[in-house]
Design goal:
This protein has 162 residues and is mainly alpha-helical. Helix content is 78%, strand content 0%. It contains 8 helices and no strands. The chain has helices at residues 3-10, 14-25, 28-45, 55-85, 96-110, 113-124, 129-136, 140-161. Helix 3 (28-45) packs across helix 4. The termini are far apart.
């Protein structure tokens, strides 16, 4: 499939696809991101869109699936953020263990966003690097690298402050 064939098939559907993404995500910026990701996946799949019986249904399904993936990632991240904000059930906040936990949470908050997300998913959320890679859309190797750098920085900052 050539770029011209792809554009001829997809261009008339862009309004419907964006509208669907906006309805599902309720954020214009996220909707545009979801549409862009779905179009990229459609292009990479090299599915013969012009030869399909219902290319519009196929394209709308791709956008819907991308939106659902984004919503699931949001839900996972918000659950982990809530868990990170809750005080430890094992130790009251005014105990030495509670103070240590609060210090660690403050240190994690100083990390770059990508490292922060990975550390929260794996260390606080109990996920494996592979699961974190699926949620974030990163490669497992990149997740391991971010986790390693984050842990190293946490260790340095913790030793300075404790």
């Amino acid at each position: 499939m050539t770029l011209q064939e792809f554009n001829r098939t997809v261009d008339p559907l862009l309004g419907k696809m964006l509208g669907l993404a906006r309805r599902l995500l309720r954020d214009p910026d996220d909707a545009a991101d979801a549409l862009q990701e779905a179009l990229l996946k459609l292009w990479r799949s090299q599915a013969p869109l012009p030869d399909m019986e219902k290319p519009d249904a196929y394209c709308l399904k791709a956008v819907r699936m991308q939106c659902l993936d984004m919503l699931e990632r949001r839900r996972e991240l918000s659950r982990l953020d809530e868990a990170a904000e809750l005080p430890s059930a094992e130790a009251p906040p005014d105990s030495p263990a509670g103070e240590t936990r609060q210090l660690l949470l403050r240190i994690i908050a100083t990390l770059p966003e990508a490292q922060q997300r990975i550390v929260r998913l794996i260390a606080l959320g109990g996920l494996t690097p592979e699961e974190a890679a699926q949620i974030t859309g990163l490669t497992p190797a990149n997740v391991r690298q971010l986790l390693s750098r984050g842990r190293r920085k946490i260790k340095i900052l913790f030793n300075k402050n404790y």
